[in-house]
Amino acid sequence: MTPYTFPPGYSFFGTYKRALQVVRSPLETMMESVERFGESYSVTDGIRGRMILTQNPEFIDYILRRNQKNYHKSRMVTEKLGRFIGNGLLTSNGSYWLRQRRLIQPGFHPQKVQGLYSIMKTTIDKFVDEFPAGDQVDIYPLMNRLAFDVVLNTLFDIQLPAHTIKQVGKFISEIQEFVIADIRQPYKSWWYELSGTVKENLGKSQHTRNILLEVIRERTSGGKKYNDLLDMLLDARYEDTGEGMNEEQILDEIMILFIAGHETTGNALTWMLYLLATHPEELARLKNETAGLSIQEIISNARLTAVIHESMRLYPPAWVSDRVAMEDDSFEGFSFPKGTIIALFYFGLHRSTKYWDDPLAFNPDRFLKADQKEKSKVFFPFGSGPRLCIGNNFAMAEMAIFLQAFLQKFDLKPTGIKPKMRALITLRPEGVLLNIR
Ligand code: HEM
């Protein structure tokens, strides 16, 4: 008899049956499981032990903030993902993570981000000017490209040939698809190793690293100052030793900032345009209220912020994240041993009738009227606690500047084609086709 009281859930065989459904339709399967067992439930697959999945906001807050010291990122992130994107801010734990966070945090200080607004705006304006308007425009690849360019221009001031950018983008996307397949089907890991799939993806990762390495070497040998994040990473010194990061560490952090910084924002922007196109009254209101604003006014515009928040409530780019317990722990009536993996299901929480009126409706006003403090208890688009997204201010500014510029120039109409949600590491939109004039 186990001395622990896990939340109710699936038996060993039930987990395997469910695993097949998870591969096909993860969001629906997880929401059905919540219906069946409650906000927290458990599964067991014989490989990772009994795992807990939860959309209970109190439990999420407990893990991310109140008892965060007991929770690290799991091996799914540190090893499975880290193997391909490197060991840095997103994928490390403990004292290494804390050292890196302290070193990199100043680069994302609100004042630093403010200093980037004008480069962001120039990049966005160029994109809007060259935007291929027309019927049935496939939005996602374009938004992904924009978000990639914004990171490239604002944080790294790097010039790369168009075909290199395209290839790096493609590799990053393919690596992500592979990693998520491996996480969802751990019983196939041996096959991925044997069949050469792991090697192939490691090759893509190495190729991307080589491109970035060339950029770093050019910088360190050039002597010219760029005053961007890359310069900051090169110049930063650890408080305790006075030393800087070595080349490998800088490379890891750049890879991570590239990936974490563009994929999520590209997804969020795509869902935003889709929601606005399918809600013409919200679109018209936003257009009216944001005409002729200065950059500062755009950043602080309450309606823009509400539209962005409401879109990320319905389609949180980071739809799930996970932690592993370092020591035995308990929460309310449950208890579980150290090593237990806990998945935090933000997508389910953001659409729960328990916390949101008419949760499937797109209604930005709920963020205008609401007590923001109350809302933040049930809304986690950027996570929470010490590992809160380091780029949250950057992303909010980028999305607001883009929406304002894009909507002043274009009119959006839906096509009637329903897009798909692909729940990979991020919630990727597929088939968002809009008529844009
Ligand atoms: C809409 C856009 C974005 C969303 C929704 C988002 C979401 C998140 C979330 C939920 C986390 C926490 C993950 C966890 O607790 O497991 C996170 C972490 C992180 N994000 Fe973002 N992010 C966005 C944009 C950005 C940007 C623009 C950057 C950088 C340029 C960035 C860099 C990072 C990094 C480095 C971490 C790891 C931080 C740490 O663990 O210390 N993100 N992000």
Question: Main traits of this protein?
Answer:
single chain; 437 residues; alpha+beta; Cytochrome p450; 5-stranded mixed sheet; 3-stranded antiparallel sheet; 20 helices; 12 strands; binds protoporphyrin IX containing FE
Can you describe what's shown?
With 437 residues, the protein is α+β, with helices and mostly antiparallel strands. The chain has a single domain (12-436), classed as Cytochrome p450, CATH 1.10.630. Helices cover 57% and strands 11% of the residues. It is built from 20 helices and 12 strands. It has helices spanning 12-24, 26-37, 57-66, 75-85, 94-104, 110-114, 117-129, 139-156, 162-184, 189-194, 197-222, 229-235, 247-277, 280-290, 295-300, 302-314, 346-350, 365-369, 372-375, 392-409; strands at residues 40-44, 50-54, 71-72, 134-138, 321-325, 329-331, 334-336, 341-344, 412-414, 420-423, 427-430, 433-436. The strands form 4 sheets. The chain has a 5-stranded mixed beta sheet with strand order 1-2-8-5-3, with helices on both faces. Strands 4-12-9 form a 3-stranded antiparallel beta sheet. Strand 6 (329-331) and strand 7 form a beta hairpin. Helix 13 packs across helix 20. The longest helix is centred in the middle third of the chain and has 31 residues, at 247-277. The termini are far apart. The mean pLDDT is 92. The structure holds protoporphyrin IX containing FE. Protoporphyrin IX containing FE binds next to helix 13 and helix 20. Residues 89-90, 101, 151, 256-257, 260-261, 264-265, 268, 317-318, 321, 381-383, 387, 389-391, 394-395 line the site of protoporphyrin IX containing FE.
